[in-house]
Design a protein that fits this description.
Elements: H1 2-13, H2 23-27, E1 31-34, E2 38-43, H3 49-55, E3 74-78, E4 86-92, E5 98-103, E6 111-116, H4 130-139, E7 144-149, E8 154-159, E9 173-175, H5 178-186, H6 190-197, E10 201-203, E11 210-215, E12 221-227, E13 230-235, E14 240-243, H7 261-272, H8 279-288, E15 294-301, E16 306-311, E17 319-322
Parallel strand pairs: 2-5, 9-10
Antiparallel strand pairs: 1-2, 3-4, 3-14, 4-15, 5-6, 6-7, 7-8, 8-11, 11-12, 12-13, 15-16, 16-17
Helix pairs in contact: 5-6
Length: 324
């Protein structure tokens, strides 16, 4: 069974010297919650993100990034209820193992984030071997596809047809997923996130071009896109905001519903609700706009610090996690 492989790897890793993280303690928290498989893990120690920010460069190669097929991610911010502000997000990709990762670095904020485990070598139907577990410790914090931190700031990414990142001389260049880690570890609000992102170049070379939706517990949200070598911030004008897989900036707001049926469906529901959804309603909306490739659906309750997660379109089973 897979946990026997984990136990053997723990013995070997007990003698492994890894700068920063506590490998034995972290791996002792690795749990498989179901056979999809969905894992959780609490990361103990420092993954040296401050050192990474000093030099940048792509953090880890994203295998299979940019492969063919239609992208179908959906992300929305529902900000109409001050006591229950939410970010909902469908991640559509290949049928891969996944993990909800909890981190609390000494030089950043605590957060929960979703990780596609294929990028550290995990495969469905196979036990994680020693090399996968070592890669997990090295790379997992840098491979966050969406998440929320202790201050109620949430972020998600979606593929878009193209992006031309800013290339400012003298700026450190970050991997496109490391931008999510930057926001989770260092920003409490949308404005702080924008200020931080504006200090770095972004490299999309290891994966598809993407844009980001960021929201905070104070009721602000923004979609960040990179066009003509500039960072473009499209802030919410009402109590909700939606993004899918097309660039918002070139499309007039009144015409955006015509660009994507998932965008139209989410925008209509949020408009009718005045941007106020319960967590159950948010998950039902994610179910409505899901597709065959939906790997996970997650609702981040920014007001209450809770995470609601469904995997493989099994909306009858929703996991709930609390931020500590």
């Amino acid at each position: 069974m897979w946990w026997w492989a984990l136990a053997g790897a723990l013995v070997m890793l007990a003698a492994l010297v890894v700068e920063g993280p506590n490998p034995r303690r972290s791996l002792s928290t690795l749990r498989r919650l179901d056979d999809y498989p969905l894992y959780t893990m609490r990361y103990f120690g420092n993954y040296n993100f401050s050192a990474y920010l000093e030099k940048g460069e792509p953090a880890f190669q994203k295998a299979q990034a940019g492969a063919g097929g239609e992208y179908a991610c959906t992300c929305f911010a529902a900000l109409g209820d001050p006591g229950g502000r939410l970010v909902g997000r469908n991640f559509d990709w290949y049928d891969h193992p996944m993990m909800l990762l909890f981190t609390d670095p000494p030089d950043g904020y605590a957060s929960a984030a979703m990780v596609d485990l294929s990028y550290v070598g995990f495969k469905r139907g196979e036990e994680p071997a020693e090399e996968q577990l070592e890669a997990l410790l090295r790379a997992a914090p840098y491979l966050s596809f969406d998440g929320m931190n202790e201050h109620g700031l949430a972020v998600g990414m979606m593929a878009v047809p193209h992006a031309e990142a800013q290339l400012e001389t003298g700026f450190v260049t970050l991997d496109s997923l490391a931008v999510i880690r930057l926001v989770l570890d260092r920003a409490r609000t949308v404005e702080e996130a924008l200020s931080l992102m504006g200090q770095y170049n972004v490299d999309f070379g290891g994966g598809p071009p993407i844009h980001y939706l960021i929201a905070d517990a104070g009721g602000h949200s923004v979609v960040v896109e990179y066009l003509n070598n500039e960072m473009v911030a499209l802030r919410n004008e009402g109590s909700w905001q939606v993004a899918t897989n097309f660039l918002l900036e070139p499309v007039a707001p009144a015409a955006r519903r015509e660009n994507c049926p998932r965008y139209r469906a989410a925008d209509e529901v949020l408009q009718a609700a005045g941007g106020a959804l319960t967590t159950d309603e948010a998950m039902r909306l994610l179910e409505r706009v899901s597709g065959d490739g939906t790997l996970w659906s997650v609702v981040y309750d920014m007001s209450r610090g809770a995470v609601y997660l469904s995997v493989g379109r099994n909306y009858e089973r929703v996991y709930r996690f609390a931020m500590e």
